[in-house]
Structure formats: structure tokens, C-alpha cells
Write a structure and sequence with these properties.
This protein is an alpha/beta fold and 500 residues long. It is built from 20 helices and 10 strands. The termini are far apart.
Length: 500
């Protein structure tokens, strides 16, 4: 009766493994349930405090959105065509579609977004920069139809753009970004999905993948999800605005029903920093210098792009940047990286834009649609360029770049900056003036450059460090289109009043 039961070791290990898997599954399910409950409570609080409307589509479970894509008529048609052309089984092609959908579709979690994401974005932005909202066209933005789908279109200066803009609009809406493959590493991938972002293979030539991505963007925009798009498609390597890429804009336009209930409204957003965290790394593969132009993106052409930087050099540059700032923190010499400013411009209604040109983008032939989307992209880039904030470092850098071999006194620097300031102001540029004090603004910009040793003082005179002229040019380039426009055009309307 008391005889024991002897089990082979392999069976004991198998049973222990199964028991561990069962415990892990229970913990995961309990965690998901807890996050879902907390998310529901957060949504009630957000709706009460900020009156944010989060569309039901954004709160739909990940698997339900994947299933919706798999059952989409156009996706099924594309899968059938692909299977027939490639001689593949329909089941295999549909499995590929499922993998693509799983990869693209986010898993938005309100608790993570508003409790942790917002706090992280706010803490990171404010600890690194003096964050400022420069100017907002409040009347125009307030006039947007509440049913419309809003798309924020922005220039891309830094990876901080994601955090900065999310922080600035957190009391109005939750954004959905397109994120590249750089974020597809664990656990960053899970966090990014919870924040509502969707993944994009930037250079995928697979037509089946592109169709799945297109349908997700079309469906989400038709459901009213607020999108955030960088028309340039990537970070500016030389500081200038880049030519727009048409991929995501074409998907949005192709899925837009001009006669439908929901309008598609683009809100231009201009972003600028006194210091971009990645400036030296970005300059490793900046395109060759080109003449100044009044166009915000004519100076940078795709054929001018240099070969991609070597990864080891970029890694060493990043490590050096982190080590230098860590040393400054240890010796209590670290300072924030100046001002980070965001401007919001006049919205553009796609319905009104299409009607004015008598265009139905969804029904246009491919070539005609691309031409129309190119015109739309150019218009959006012009509006983005017009609201890029003019910050102190950009102005001071412009003065030194104009005379790289000339040593200037402090009085000469201030005189040149203030002259440039008046010129930009008369042309309608959005200048941010710290403390509403122009003299202080010049001192702030000059201090940032001297702390970084981009500008040095010798015998009471200031001159740029010869080896760092590309870095100075990078910051001057952020407003080069505004400077060129101010020099070639008559004064425009008065600029919007900056907000502190």
C-alpha cells in the first residue's frame, strides 16, 4: 500500500515543463485582463478630463483587426492574383497575408499609452529640452469637422519627434505612427504596438505586402483614427527638408472617398531643436552640399544622397556622445539641449482640395493619381516648411555659416542675427523668442554653440571651428528655406504671436 511510484526522468521533465507553460499562460492571461480593465478605467478618466474621443477601431483587439484584414475583399483579390501569377497554393499565400497582417496591425492599450507612454514622453522631452509650443492656428483647427480623420504631417528632424509631438497633443488625441523595422526588437516591439503604432517595411518591393499595408491604412483612416505621418519618409541627413515620398500619402488618397461622410484633413506640423541628438550620426551620410533655393526641399534630391554610413562608425559616434554626456552628468556640468519647439499650421481638407481640382483620387488611373498625389505632397511640404520654428541656434549658426573664415565680435554677431530676425519676421516666418527678449535669444543660441565648441572665442572674437562647419550648416539648413524665401519675396502677412 505504501509502495511509491517511480517515473522516468524524461516524463518528470515533460510534466514540469507542461506545468510551467500552464502557469505562464495563466500569468499572461491575468496580465492581459488586468491591463484591459485598467485601460477601460483610464479611458473613462481621459474622456472626463480631456474629452478625448478614441475611436472604437483603435480599441479593437489586435486579432480582430487581423481577421478583418484577412477577410477584406481587396486583400483576398490580391492574394488570389498573386497565387495564380506565382503558381502557389492559395493556402500558402493566405498564410503569408496573415503574417503580414500580424506584423502590421498594432495592439493599442489605453493604459500603457496614457499612463506610461505619455509620462515617458513628457519626462524624456522635458528632461532633454525646454519644450515650447510656438504657434497654433487655433481658429482653423477648431473649425475641423469632428467627424473628419486628422492626419498630422510633420518634418522629421529626430527620433525624439515621436515623443515630442505625442506629448504636445496628448490632451487632444492619441496618435498612430508608422514605425520602421528599427523598432522590431523585443521588448521595444511590444511597447510600440501598445502605443498604437503600426510597422512598415520601408523598402519592401512585395506587391502583396504593399496591398495589405495599403488596406490597413485605408481602413483605419476610414474609421477616423488620427494618424501621424512624416512625408519625407526618414530623418533629414543634412538638416534641410527632404523631397516627399508618396507611399503613405498615396495609400491615404487612394482610400479616400470624396463623397463619403468622413473628410480627411491634413494638419501641417513644424518641429525644430536647438540640438538634435543624432546630428553627427546623421551627417555621416549627408548628401553633398547644394546651392540654396527658395523651395523647402529642392536642395536635397534623391540622386544626391551619399552611400549609407558605415555601421561601426555610427555606433562609435553614438557611444562617444553618450559617454561625453555621462561624464558631464557625473561632474554636474550637464545642461539641457536648448529649446525644442512645435508649430501647428493651417489644416488642408482633402475633400476641398480635390473638389477645387475636380479630382476623385480613388478612381484616377495610376499615373494620373501619382501626379495628383505628388502635387498634394508638394503642397503639404510647403505648408510644413512655412511653420518650421526658427530657433536661436539656427539663426546664430546661419550667421557663422555665411562667413566661415571670418572672426566676429559679440556685437557683430548680435547685429547680424537681429537683421536676419527682422527679415524673417517680415516674411511671415514663425520665430520663437525666449522670454520675448531678442538679445537673450542670441545669447542662448551662442551659448549652445560655444558649449559644444562649434564656435570658439579667440582674442575676444568668435569664429566657427573649421572641422565642425558641417554641424553648423546642419542647424542653419533647418531654416535655410525660410531665409531664402525671405530674401527673394516681398513681406507676407504678420507672423503668428508666439506662445510661452
Amino acid at each position: 500500500m505504501s509502495q511509491g511510484i517511480v517515473l522516468p526522468l524524461w516524463l518528470v521533465v515533460l510534466l514540469a515543463g507542461l506545468a510551467l507553460l500552464a502557469v505562464v499562460a495563466l500569468v499572461v492571461r491575468a496580465a492581459r485582463w488586468a491591463l484591459r480593465r485598467r485601460g477601460e478605467r483610464v479611458m473613462k478618466e481621459v474622456n472626463r478630463r480631456f474629452r478625448i474621443q478614441i475611436h472604437p477601431f483603435k480599441l479593437t483587439r489586435h486579432q480582430a483587426l487581423v481577421d478583418r484584414l484577412l477577410l477584406d475583399a481587396r486583400v483576398l483579390e490580391a492574394a488570389e492574383t498573386h497565387a495564380r501569377e506565382q503558381g502557389l497554393r492559395s493556402e500558402d499565400v493566405l498564410e503569408r497575408v496573415r503574417r503580414y497582417a500580424e506584423e502590421i496591425v498594432p495592439a493599442f492599450n489605453a493604459y500603457i499609452y496614457f499612463r506610461w507612454g505619455y509620462r515617458i514622453a513628457r519626462a524624456a522631452a522635458r528632461s532633454l529640452y525646454r519644450v515650447r509650443l510656438g504657434s497654433v492656428d487655433e481658429a482653423a483647427i477648431a473649425g475641423i469637422d469632428p467627424k473628419a480623420t486628422v492626419v498630422l504631417v510633420m518634418n522629421h528632424r529626430s527620433n525624439m519627434d515621436y515623443l515630442l509631438v505625442s506629448h504636445m497633443v496628448a490632451d487632444r488625441t492619441a496618435l498612430s505612427y508608422a514605425v520602421g523595422e528599427w523598432a522590431r526588437i523585443w521588448p521595444l516591439e511590444t511597447l510600440v504596438r501598445w502605443m498604437g503604432a503600426f510597422f512598415v517595411r520601408r523598402n519592401s518591393g512585395d506587391p502583396l505586402y504593399r496591398r495589405v499595408l495599403e488596406r490597413y491604412i485605408a481602413i483605419s483612416s476610414a474609421e477616423g483614427v488620427t494618424q501621424a505621418v512624416f512625408p519625407e519618409g526618414g530623418l533629414s541627413r543634412d538638416g534641410r527638408l527632404q523631397p516627399p515620398k508618396l507611399g503613405l500619402l498615396d495609400y491615404l488618397a487612394r482610400g479616400f472617398d470624396r463623397r463619403g461622410e468622413r473628410d480627411l484633413v491634413f494638419v501641417p506640423v513644424g518641429i525644430n531643436y536647438d540640438r538634435t541628438l543624432e546630428d553627427r550620426t546623421l551627417l555621416l551620410d549627408a548628401p553633398p552640399a547644394s546651392p540654396a533655393s527658395s523651395s523647402p526641399f529642392a536642395a536635397a534630391r534623391p540622386q544626391d544622397r551619399a552611400k549609407p554610413r558605415r555601421a561601426p562608425r555610427a555606433v562609435l559616434t553614438t557611444i562617444g556622445f553618450l559617454a561625453h554626456n555621462l561624464r558631464l552628468m557625473v561632474f554636474q556640468q550637464w545642461h539641457r539641449f536648448g529649446y525644442a519647439c512645435v508649430n501647428f499650421g493651417e489644416p488642408l481638407s482633402l475633400r476641398a482640395w480635390s473638389a477645387a481640382r475636380d479630382l476623385d483620387l480613388a478612381s484616377l488611373p495610376r499615373e494620373a493619381r501619382f501626379a495628383a498625389v505628388q502635387a498634394l505632397a508638394d503642397e503639404l511640404m510647403l505648408r510644413i516648411g512655412a511653420v518650421v520654428p526658427v530657433l536661436p541656434v539656427a539663426l546664430v549658426a546661419t550667421v557663422f555659416v555665411r562667413g566661415p573664415q571670418r572672426a566676429l565680435s559679440l556685437l557683430e554677431v548680435k547685429s547680424a542675427v537681429l537683421a536676419l530676425w527682422r527679415q524673417l519676421e517680415s516674411s511671415g516666418a514663425r520665430l520663437y523668442v525666449p522670454r520675448q527678449d531678442q538679445d537673450y535669444a542670441v545669447e542662448v543660441g551662442l551659448r549652445m554653440l560655444t558649449l559644444r565648441r562649434l564656435v570658439v572665442e579667440r582674442d575676444g572674437l568668435l569664429l566657427p571651428t573649421s572641422g565642425d562647419l558641417p554641424v553648423l550648416a546642419y542647424y542653419a539648413n533647418s531654416v535655410a528655406h525660410l531665409v531664402a524665401s525671405a530674401e527673394t519675396r516681398p513681406p507676407a502677412v504678420a507672423p503668428a504671436t508666439p506662445l510661452e
